[in-house]
User: Fold this.
Amino acid sequence: MFENLMAVSSLPCIQPVRVPFKPCSLFSVGDSCGFNKKKKINAIVFASWRKLEKDINLQLKVDTLLDNIKWDEKGLAVAIAQNVDTGAILMQGFVNRDALAMTISSRKATFFSRSRAALWTKGETSKNFINIHDIFVDCDRDSIIYLGKPDGPTCHTGSETCYFTPISDLLLNQEAKENNLALTTLYSLEYTISQRESELTGQNGKPSWTKRLLLDENLLCSKIREETDELCRTLEEKEENSRTASEMADVIYHAMVLLRRKDVKIENVLEVLRQRFSQSGIEEKQSRITKS
Assistant:
């Protein structure tokens, strides 16, 4: 349904259409092409009316959707922006009917500023828009998730997200660090590997396993092949599921070290996967052949 709702961008321009049509005045008597021209014009008029009817029906659906949101006494609801690829919570704001309708129409995350009593689109000043891929409401329909892809840092401080202050730091009166983001397991691992790489300069003593892998690409590649083979053997030899999970964890870890060596983020990998959702494996492989 959301894909259809996205077409609402054309709705503000909808106007009733009147097309005067006088068959006798369009063509002179004896014009052999007149009948075909009339048919073509009739087809255009009919198509215009069909589009108008479709747009009106779509507007009614959007209005119904907005009516079903449980707005608070001020006509607002909480809206949370989330990165479609990483799952990171980018920011939180408030929306009213117009802000949500604008987001559906423009595919840009739009909010309602309570201090200015006006709509604002994230990125209208910084150009770091949040491009909307989907919108979700919760089970009570009183809060909303904007699932989108940011063009750049979301926070006004320049941080990737607005969430980089752990409660533990506040309790210890420690100053928040903007790179200390609220990360899930996969991204915490990516951050740790990146930190190990930054520590390579001026390395003293015996390096950690991660640093050894970062320094030796032959060792790294051999470990990826080894761990991949062990993962496959858990299927072939019908090993316990816990063993499969363990071997898969090894594959992911070593593969992410390789990504760090290549300066590729896991977010880039997930974006590729998302883009492949809409096409079959055969089509995707064919596109690779065409590009090469």
